């Protein structure tokens, strides 16, 4: 499976399996049934080789091939010798669809928003090896093993690569085929369950969190497991005094460039930033590792319009000049770059809240006392989580006030409407129910700016959809509690048939969208429908039973 391609690239790879038939299967838009379990976790497994004369290339999938090639290798400025791991995220090719599109995905319905599958982007996890090799021209072996998935399970897939990549580099393709077959035996990812995932003699145990709720809201009590276990203190240590400001930038979906000395630092930091506002989902675009070869390079570097809502992690010194007009730049470590930035963190005046000096002092004291990084990370995670919860809780309480009262639900009428969200009305609630007790500052200004961000739009769309489902559930409960048969006694046949058809539609919608109602309730409604049909003349019964 090697060929010469344009740009002088040598390509090899492995998709969902090892034989030619299996490689062909990996390029199909519709995943074949034999690889359905594999596809629940991964889109494909890729091998990318680098030839010092010809460049990097891949032959494994019609999935943004060129982007995967360039994102799978640290650029020459990083100087990565030995083994390096990094992550990337790329936009799905136009016109490509997945087998689970077009209907609500069962996994996403029950998973926390921060762990859901992505519809429009892929996540790539890379294990790159560069070692001296006298048998190779110019003396270096350079190759990357890449797994591509729609799931943002950073730690899980990097752990998987730590198991399989060293073995693959020694034994090559037969090993990779065995791994793909083992993954095809894994159980599907199910929120709330502990799963054992065997591969190459190792059993990885993972638990995907269930969507937990607090005070009838969508605030997840514990938001990250071993699936996304980043040492945030390591990512933020050099900019620790700015952590409050970084949280605000993420909350507001501001354009941010992270300039780092390596793709590992770049990707870990961008992912840590995105996770800083959990359990709120970051709804802007983010690229843990971004190169000049990225398909969105022109889109994200144009100066004819304001920078987009995106976080970019970069290592190439070319970007110092390219992004000098961006409002927010974070510089990490020794970038080995010519030219310089005046500050480690360049931020356009935006901050609304005061620094929590006591908390920063606590973290700095932990560094002085050499407190374990796991403990430091847990302290920082808890602080960020509590801060996000403090911010979101007033919004959740206000949403609750927009819901119609349960006693207003009538089985004989269309359910009442949810009241519209009013920013001004919400602002008035902050005096009594605001988060100002946790941290001082301009909370009103922060909320008003948040309302213009992609994060508010994403959060509100999700919550509004859930509120509509809640109203449907309450209406269903009211219908099931009513004496439907008695209601039909003085009604015409036309009215009764109309009721039956509406009840059937409601029942079908509840099951199709898997509304959170007890199955016994739906069965009771189904029985009521049958009882009403039985009360009608035989010709109408026959007609209704046919439908």
Report on this model:
With 547 residues, the chain is of the alpha+beta class. It has three domains: 185 residues, no CATH class; 244 residues, Rossmann fold (3-Layer(aba) Sandwich), CATH 3.40.50.11500; 64 residues, no CATH class. Helices cover 42% and strands 15% of the residues. The protein contains 20 helices and 14 strands. The strands form four sheets. A five-stranded antiparallel sheet has the order 4-3-7-6-5, with helices on both faces. The protein has a five-stranded mixed sheet with strand order 11-12-10-13-14, covered by helices on one side. A two-stranded antiparallel ribbon has the order 1-2. A hairpin with a 3-residue loop joins strand 1 and strand 2. Helix 16 packs across helix 19. The N terminus is likely disordered.
Number of domains: 3
Oligomer state of the chains in this structure = single chain
How many E-type strands? Answer: 14
Hey, roughly how much beta strand do the residues contain?
5-15%
CATH architecture of the largest domain: 3-Layer(aba) Sandwich
Mean pLDDT across every amino acid position:
81
Biggest sheet details = 5 strands, antiparallel
* Spatial ordering of strands, largest sheet: 4-3-7-6-5
Which structural class fits the helix and strand makeup? alpha+beta
From the spread of the alpha carbons, the general shape counts as globular
CATH homologous group name of the largest domain: DENN domain, C-terminal lobe
Cα(first) to Cα(last) distance is 54 Å
* Count of alpha and pi helical runs: 20
Radius of gyration: 27 Å
Query: Under CATH, the topology of the largest domain is which?
Result: Rossmann fold
Task: Give start-end ranges of low-pLDDT stretches.
Answer: 1-32, 57-62, 95-103, 212-228, 337-342
By CATH reckoning, the class of the largest domain would read Alpha Beta
Helix content: 40-55%
InterPro entries: cDENN_dom, DENND6, Tripartite_DENN
Keywords: Guanine-nucleotide releasing factor
GO molecular function, one term: guanyl-nucleotide exchange factor activity
Organism: Sinocyclocheilus anshuiensis
């Amino acid at each position: 499976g090697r060929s010469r391609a344009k740009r002088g690239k040598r390509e090899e790879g492995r998709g969902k399996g090892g034989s030619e038939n299996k490689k062909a299967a990996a390029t199909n838009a519709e995943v074949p049934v034999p690889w359905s379990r594999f596809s629940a976790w991964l889109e494909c497994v890729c091998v990318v080789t680098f030839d010092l004369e010809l460049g990097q290339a891949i032959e494994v999938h019609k999935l943004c091939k060129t982007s995967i090639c360039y994102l799978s290798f640290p650029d020459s400025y990083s100087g990565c010798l030995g083994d390096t791991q990094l992550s990337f995220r790329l936009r799905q090719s136009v016109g490509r669809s997945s087998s689970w599109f077009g209907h609500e995905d069962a996994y996403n319905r029950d998973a926390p928003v921060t762990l859901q599958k992505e519809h429009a982007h892929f996540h790539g996890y890379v294990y790159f090896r560069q070692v001296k090799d006298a048998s190779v021209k110019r003396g270096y072996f350079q190759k990357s093993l890449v797994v591509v998935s729609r799931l943002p399970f950073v730690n899980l897939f990097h752990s998987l690569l730590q198991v399989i990549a060293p073995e693959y580099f020694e034994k090559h393709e037969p090993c990779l085929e065995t791994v793909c077959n083992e993954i095809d035996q894994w159980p599907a990812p199910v929120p709330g369950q502990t799963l054992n995932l065997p591969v190459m003699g190792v059993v990885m145990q993972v638990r995907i969190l269930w969507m937990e709720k607090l005070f009838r809201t969508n605030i997840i009590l514990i938001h990250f497991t071993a699936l996304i276990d980043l040492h945030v203190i390591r990512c933020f240590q050099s900019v620790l005094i700015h952590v409050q400001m970084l949280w605000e930038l993420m909350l507001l979906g501001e354009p941010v460039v992270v300039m780092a000395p390596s793709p590992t630092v770049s990707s870990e930091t961008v992912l840590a930033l995105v996770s800083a506002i959990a359990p709120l989902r970051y709804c802007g675009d983010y690229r843990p590792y971004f190169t000049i070869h990225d398909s969105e390079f022109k889109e994200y570097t144009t100066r004819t319009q304001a920078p987009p809502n995106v976080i970019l992690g970069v290592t190439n010194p070319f970007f110092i000049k390219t992004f000098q007009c961006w409002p927010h730049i974070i510089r990490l470590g020794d970038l080995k770059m010519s030219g310089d930035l005046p500050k480690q963190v360049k931020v356009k005046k935006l901050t609304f809240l005061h620094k929590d000096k006591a908390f920063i002092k606590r973290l700095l004291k932990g560094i002085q006392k050499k407190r374990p990084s796991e403990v430091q990370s847990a302290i920082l995670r808890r602080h960020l989580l509590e801060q996000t919860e403090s911010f979101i809780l007033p919004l959740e309480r206000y949403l609750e006030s927009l819901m119609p009262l349960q006693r207003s639900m009538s089985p004989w009428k269309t359910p009442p409407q949810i009241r519209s969200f009013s920013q001004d009305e919400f602002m008035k609630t902050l005096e009594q129910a605001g988060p100002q007790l946790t941290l001082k500052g301009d909370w009103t200004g922060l909320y008003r700016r948040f309302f213009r961000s992609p994060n508010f739009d994403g959060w509100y769309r999700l919550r509004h959809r859930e509120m509509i489902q809640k109203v449907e559930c309450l209406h269903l409960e009211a219908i099931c509690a009513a004496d439907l048969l008695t209601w039909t006694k003085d009604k015409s046949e036309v009215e009764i048939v109309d009721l039956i058809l509406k009840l059937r539609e409601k029942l079908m919608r509840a099951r199709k969208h898997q509304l959170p109602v007890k199955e016994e309730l739906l069965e009771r409604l189904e029985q009521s429908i049958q009882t009403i049909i039985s009360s009608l003349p035989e010709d109408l019964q026959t007609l209704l039973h046919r439908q």
